[in-house]
């Protein structure tokens, strides 16, 4: 890279690190935590606009018009849409946006008509045609047996008239009656919907039942009788502000499903509409979620801690963060996943669901915020019990629910397992008696799982993160870096199995480094700030000085932190996050947090060499 700087000039690295620290401090809100900003989503826009039109097109005319205009303004040059502005066009987003354009009607302005025609051309190329069988086949290829997303997409197409006069026969019926069984039996049923998709299962299941009822009279009668119970269950799952999982996508699917099933005036629909209206941005767009504040704040605490005392958070902010984290801990069984009390979700909003990664993240963050009082210790013990209770039979950690291992986003995964192992390791000295023994067993099982899941090339694959430009849209760089960051902080890191995993993972990251010094999701994939920063953090302190030097050079240049770089700071966010299966988002603070942590680790590495 032209104009590379010598990262080992301490004065310059100190200046870059201080600039990154100042920037991050300014991004915290008045309460001391980080909310960030999620990218606007064409897919969320399409579902939200269509849901509002299904409920009452006339009453919601202005947000519908603004949402459609936003879609027209952000269509890709090839005629399709990706999940974020500038993302490559994909089938799901484009089908849904094309369906949403149908609400403009015959009076659509010329720009919308042009966009609609270009979307049709893209779909013909991507799906082989505009027929229902073309969409069914293409969505099956994309999602396999997971109906969480494919069936709502087809249902929205059918409501929009995009599947023709007999379109409902192409929409698989979702067995909403199964969700009325006791939740303890869910893990034994071959559910085609992931745990967090139960509200959509109920709403879209009721929709398909209305438009394509079962042929068997007895089945029809049973479903007619059970649907009011399904509505009560959805109502019990709906958060106080109306937004299921704080997501415009999930809330939109539930809202349009129930509206299409003849329940436009139901309180669930009214609350869903209010959530959608209140979360529409000034430009007419919707993000996929309100925020990931708990996750971001835990990541930020880790980054500030990596810099040592000189880079630490101000004492008042540490106290405020500790109190805020404790206030976000779930204290009751969750109505959607039936998770017991004790975990943390990704956000401070009512739609949050406790999950393994965020619970591990907060557990790892709390000890870094200062001396822990009795309240903090008690919260940590509850969370540890919750976390090890989540562990699957294979020794790995899933996201939401133990035992739902048949579909992608409910299975064990290496990055969450490594994160949980770190949390267990850090809290082990504070535990005693039976809990300590359980933690020891859970930790040993995590290690065995990670050994089994490490690929022959030394990499691990993550679950909720990926890279749109990599093979299979996977990011072994992200997964490996995340796992290594956790493993290298373990007090058990000197044990032979863990040391061997660290060595193999580090070797993989070195081989995956691009010629420009940065990292993408895999070798040859364009470098991103997020993946480069994580790789540098994971390798700093190991015997990979040249890779660390080249990666740090890339970061300093790409972010504008290098001395003499023009244009100020440039933390350009890449869509590396996955919200649902194959639904991408970018988070504006990921590159800043990850870069600060990387530079902090490199700076401490240099202090160790010269101390």
Write a structural description.
The protein has 611 residues and is mainly α. Among the domains are: 156 residues, Glycosyltransferase, CATH 1.50.10; 237 residues, Glycosyltransferase (Alpha/alpha barrel), CATH 1.50.10. The chain is 54% helix and 1% strand. It has 22 helices and 2 strands. It has a two-stranded antiparallel ribbon with strand order 1-2. β1 and β2 form a beta hairpin. α6 packs antiparallel against α7, α8 packs antiparallel against α9 and α18 packs antiparallel against α19. The longest helix is centred in the middle third of the chain and has 21 residues. The chain is globular and about 70 Å long. The chain starts with 9 loop residues before the first helix and ends with a helix. The N terminus is likely disordered.
List the helices and strands and how they pair.
Blueprint: H1 10-27, H2 42-56, H3 61-74, H4 91-100, H5 110-127, H6 132-143, H7 147-159, H8 198-211, H9 217-237, H10 248-260, H11 267-278, H12 293-306, H13 315-328, H14 356-365, H15 374-390, H16 414-427, H17 433-453, H18 476-488, H19 496-512, H20 529-539, H21 545-559, E1 577-578, E2 584-585, H22 590-610
Antiparallel strand pairs: 1-2
Features:
611 residues; mainly alpha; Glycosyltransferase; two-stranded antiparallel ribbon; 2 strands; disordered N terminus
């Amino acid at each position: 890279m032209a104009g590379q700087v010598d990262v080992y000039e301490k004065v310059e690295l100190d200046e870059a690190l201080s600039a990154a620290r100042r920037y991050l401090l300014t991004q915290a809100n008045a309460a001391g935590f980080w909310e960030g900003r999620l990218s606007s989503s064409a897919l969320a826009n399409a579902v939200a606009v269509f849901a509002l039109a299904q409920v009452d097109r006339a009453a919601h005319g202005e947000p519908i018009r603004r949402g459609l205009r936003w879609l027209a303004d952000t269509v890709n040059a090839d005629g399709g849409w990706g999940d974020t502005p500038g993302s490559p066009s994909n089938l799901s987003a484009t089908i849904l946006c094309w369906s949403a354009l149908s609400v403009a009607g015959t009076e659509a302005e010329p720009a919308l008509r042009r966009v609609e025609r270009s979307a049709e051309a893209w779909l013909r190329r991507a799906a082989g045609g505009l027929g229902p069988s073309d969409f069914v086949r293409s969505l099956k290829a994309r999602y396999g047996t997971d109906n969480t997303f494919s069936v709502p997409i087809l249902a929205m197409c059918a409501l929009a008239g995009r599947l023709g006069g007999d379109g409902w026969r192409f929409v698989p019926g979702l067995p909403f009656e199964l969700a009325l069984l006791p939740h303890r039996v869910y893990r034994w049923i071959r559910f085609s919907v992931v745990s967090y998709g139960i509200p959509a299962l109920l709403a879209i299941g009721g929709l398909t039942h209305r438009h394509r009822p079962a042929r068997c009279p007895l089945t029809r009668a049973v479903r007619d009788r059970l649907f009011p119970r399904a509505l009560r269950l959805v109502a019990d799952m709906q958060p106080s502000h109306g937004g299921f999982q704080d997501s415009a996508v999930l809330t939109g699917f539930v809202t349009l499903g129930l509206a299409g099933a003849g329940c436009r005036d139901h309180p669930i629909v009214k609350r869903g509409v209010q959530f959608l209206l209140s979360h529409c941005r000034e430009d007419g767009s919707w993000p996929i979620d309100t925020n990931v504040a708990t996750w971001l704040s835990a990541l930020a605490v880790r980054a500030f801690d990596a810099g040592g005392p000189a880079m630490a958070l101000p004492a008042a902010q540490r106290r405020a963060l500790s109190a805020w984290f404790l206030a976000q801990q779930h204290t009751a069984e969750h109505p959607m996943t039936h998770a017991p009390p004790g975990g943390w979700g990704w956000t401070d909003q009512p739609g949050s669901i406790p999950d393994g990664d965020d619970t591990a993240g907060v557990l790892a963050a709390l000890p870094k915020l200062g001396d822990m009082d009795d309240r903090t210790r008690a919260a940590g013990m509850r969370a540890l019990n919750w976390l090890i209770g989540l562990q699957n039979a294979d020794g790995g950690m899933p996201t939401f629910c133990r035992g739902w291992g048949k579909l992608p986003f409910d299975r064990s995964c290496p990055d969450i397992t490594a994160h949980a192992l770190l949390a267990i390791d850090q809290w082990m000295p504070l535990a005693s008696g039976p809990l300590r023994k359980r933690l020891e067993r859970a930790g040993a099982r995590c290690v065995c799982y990670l050994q089994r899941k490490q690929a022959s090339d030394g990499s691990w694959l993550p679950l909720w993160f990926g890279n749109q430009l990599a093979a299979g849209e996977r990011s072994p760089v992200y997964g490996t870096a995340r796992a290594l960051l956790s493993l290298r902080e373990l007090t058990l890191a000197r044990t032979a199995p863990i040391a061997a995993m660290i060595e193999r993972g580090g070797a993989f990251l070195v081989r995956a480094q691009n010629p420009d010094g940065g990292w993408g999701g895999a070798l040859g994939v364009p470098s991103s700030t997020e993946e480069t920063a994580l790789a540098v953090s994971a390798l700093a302190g190991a015997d990979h000085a040249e890779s660390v030097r080249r990666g740090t050079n890339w970061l300093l240049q790409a972010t504008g932190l290098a001395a003499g770089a023009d244009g100020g700071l440039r933390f350009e966010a890449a869509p590396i996050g996955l919200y649902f299966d194959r639904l991408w988002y970018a988070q504006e603070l990921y590159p800043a947090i990850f870069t600060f942590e990387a530079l902090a680790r490199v700076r401490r590495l240099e202090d160790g060499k010269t101390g």
